[in-house]
Amino acid sequence: MSGERSRGEDSLLAALAAGSTVEDAARAAGLSSRTAYRRLADPGFARRLAQTRDELISNALGELVDCASEAVATLRALLSASDERVRLGAAKSTLEQLLRLRETLTLSQRLAALERSVQAQSRRGR
After folding, report:
1. CB–CB of 29/11 below 8 Å?
2. Considering the entire predicted model, what is its pTM?
3. Can you say how many angstroms the Cα of residue 44 is from the centroid of all Cα atoms in its chain?
4. Three-state secondary structure call for residue 5
């Protein structure tokens, strides 16, 4: 019984983490929707689901990083295309991505500074 429950929960976790609805995930795991919702209400299960989703996102991010250089090279090549509409699209895309990256890095640096400030204040307050 414990093995069946574990397999069902593992299947439910995998399906939910991959984006299935609760009803579809329950059906795929051989569980009722009611059981699936009960599992979701369990903090331990919810924590494992969040960890599983984080792992899937990290894996996908790794794949994106692997192909980023090729994507940049493609944009760079398109900047020299004979069709000016293609060049314009590549230029716009390049500049938009550059501005997004700059904004993300700036926000990340500001957040890190705030976190350091909060830590320093909490150490002084102890």
Report:
1. yes
2. 0.60
3. 21
4. helix
Tokens 């090549």, residue located = 77
In Å, how far from its chain's centre is CA 89? 27
Q: What is the 3-state secondary structure (H, E, C) of 77-90?
A: HHCCCCCHHHHHHH
Report the amino acid identity of residue 77.
A
Quick one: the chain helix, strand, coil %, rounded to 5?
90, 0, 10
Other CB atoms within 10 A of residue 32 CB:
12
Structure-derived torsion over alpha carbons of residues 53, 56, 59, 61, reported in degrees to the nearest 10: -60
Residues constituting the chain: 126
Q: Give the model confidence (pLDDT) of 43-57 as tens digits.
A: 999 999 999 999 999
Query: Which pair of structure tokens corresponds to residue 57?
Result: 């996102």
